[in-house]
Design goal:
Elements: E1 24-32, E2 36-39, E3 47-58, E4 61-69, H1 71-79, E5 86-90, E6 93-96, H2 99-105, E7 113-117, E8 123-127, H3 134-138, H4 153-159, E9 167-177, E10 181-184, E11 190-199, E12 206-210, H5 213-219, E13 228-239, E14 244-248, E15 254-257, H6 262-277, H7 283-287, H8 303-311, E16 320-330, E17 341-345, E18 372-384, E19 387-395, H9 396-403, H10 407-411, H11 415-425, E20 430-438, E21 446-455, H12 458-475
Parallel strand pairs: 4-7, 12-14
Antiparallel strand pairs: 1-3, 1-5, 2-3, 3-4, 5-8, 6-7, 9-11, 9-13, 10-11, 11-12, 13-14, 13-15, 16-18, 16-20, 17-18, 18-19, 20-21
């Protein structure tokens, strides 16, 4: 059902078809591309200009619109509205989409059709917000993809180069918005670039890059540490120069600012709680042994039991403390050091800016050595005979005890010694104390903090496993 008042004869986007005569449609603009020029094959030496946008009139329906024509007309039309505006379109041409070719460079839409605007026959008007039904305006806050279909930033970093070139969805908060930078391309066209830093519960600094004016203008409206975005169909790449993963806004991308979803609300709560506590993400205190008395943790679980417990919780699982007798199945400590060690602010314990080595949260902290400290921040996989828990946190003093060395000692190790250390720990049966919480922003839905990880006593592990089997058999 389309969201608008029936004061005019508008056709719902879902009802459009090529045989419909002179339709009028209305919708909120949810995506828009820059104006581009192409050589005109009919008039050698001249150019035709084009730009595209996407409009939506209901939670489930949106359609792509393209316009071709003279430079003056196209630029004037493009400048008449922005993402988030409500527009009416009179007499567009309804055309069938060209399948996969169409959606390779344009946003994926549920419609079988697209709209084409003609300079001589079509009219686009911006409608005042006061004239529109508020339900229509609210559509700009609904993601165009399943709200649960996204990667956390930590999951992207953990997967690394295996995601290079993939098109993914991202839900994250805005940490900072860089100043647009302008340049001239080799063919003397004007170019621009803007880098935005994102963060979530799993990763505190992740770059997303905008190359077009429309996304740059949208980014300039975002408020650091207050805005959340759902970016549908961004391209993930490995930046060889910076040796890190990045996201890029492309022509397929549709960004929803401050989405109204349950998953976004969790992230909003995280932002608010982080700001109130005076630190962006204090995982280290949360994981430190001083905050949890391990002697009070006695319940033993299998991976399968934990996943079932989470599924049965209906999204209301209280933090679970327990023990797993299993082993570390992934431990990439001999890979990139930046994936193992992070510098943190001595005051707020937030990850500091890699380039300036200063805290982006405290702002005025100096960059001397006393202002920051290095700490382990490692993602590992935990496995037992029933399954695997992915991307578990092994950090700070717990990581030092597990690895048997401090951060500074680790940094002096050769690559061969780091690899040898890894294989001392991998696949060795261990007694692992953990804390698990539900986290929709984490790709697996479960956030696992390791509180202790030491080699297990074989007798103790066998007795625990045997006792668990007896209890299960007794229940059966």
């Amino acid at each position: 059902m389309a969201y608008y008042s029936s004061t005019r004869d508008f056709v719902a986007l879902s009802d459009l078809h090529p045989n419909l005569a002179r339709p009028n449609v209305i919708g909120v603009v949810i995506g828009k591309t820059d104006v581009r020029g192409f050589p005109d094959r009919k008039n050698i030496g001249s150019e035709r200009y084009t730009f595209g946008f996407t409009i939506r009139d209901s939670p489930t329906y949106f359609i792509n619109v393209s316009s071709w024509g003279r430079e003056e007309y196209i630029r004037s039309l493009s400048e008449s509205f922005r993402v988030g505006d409500c527009v009416t379109i009179e007499n567009p041409l309804v055309q069938s989409k060209e399948g996969e070719r169409e959606e390779k460079f344009n946003p994926v839409t549920p419609s079988c059709y697209k709209l084409l605007l003609s300079e001589n026959h079509s009219v686009v008007k911006t409608s005042s917000c006061y004239e529109m039904d508020t339900k229509l305006l609210s559509l700009s806050h609904l993601p165009v993809k399943d709200p649960q279909d996204y990667y956390s930033l930590g999951d992207i970093v953990a997967n690394g180069q295996s995601l290079d070139g993939r098109i993914l969805n991202v839900l994250a908060a805005v940490m900072s918005v860089g100043e647009p930078k302008y340049f001239m391309t080799s063919d003397k066209r004007k170019g621009q670039r803007c880098e935005v830093k994102l963060y979530d519960e799993t990763e505190m600094s992740f770059p997303i890059i905008c190359w077009d004016n429309e996304s740059i203008q949208l980014a300039q409206s975002w408020i650091p540490r207050k805005t959340v975005i759902f970016a549908a169909d961004v391209r993930i790449n490995f930046d060889k120069f910076r040796n890190c993963m990045t996201a890029t806004v492309i022509s397929k991308t549709i960004i929803t600012t401050n989405p109204e979803t349950a998953e976004a609300n969790v992230l909003f709560s995280f932002i608010k709680e982080s700001a109130q506590s005076g630190a962006m993400h204090d995982k280290m205190e949360e994981q430190s042994k001083e905050s949890v008395n391990l002697e009070t943790i006695v319940n033993v679980y299998t991976v399968k039991q934990l996943k079932e417990k989470a599924l049965q919780s209906d999204g209301k699982l209280e933090p679970v403390f327990g023990i797993i007798y299993g082993y570390i199945s992934t431990l990439d400590i001999d890979d990139n050091v930046s994936k193992v060690i992070r510098n943190r602010c001595s005051i707020c314990r937030f990850v500091v800016n890699e380039m300036s080595n200063t805290c982006t949260f405290c702002g005025d902290i100096s960059s001397n050595s006393e202002s920051t400290f290095a700490s382990f921040d490692i993602l590992v996989n935990l496995t037992d005979h029933t399954g695997t828990l992915y991307s578990c946190y092994l950090s700070d003093c717990v990581a030092e005890e597990t690895l048997g060395c401090t951060v500074h000692e680790f940094l002096t190790l050769t690559e061969d010694k780091k690899t040898a250390l890894k294989w001392q720990l991998l696949l060795e049966r261990s007694k692992i104390y953990f804390k698990i919480t539900l986290s929709p922003s984490w790709r697996t839905g479960l956030k696992v903090n390791i509180l202790s990880c030491k080699l297990a006593d074989p007798t103790e592990a066998s007795q625990s496993l045997l006792g668990k089997r007896k209890r299960l058999n007794h229940v059966d």
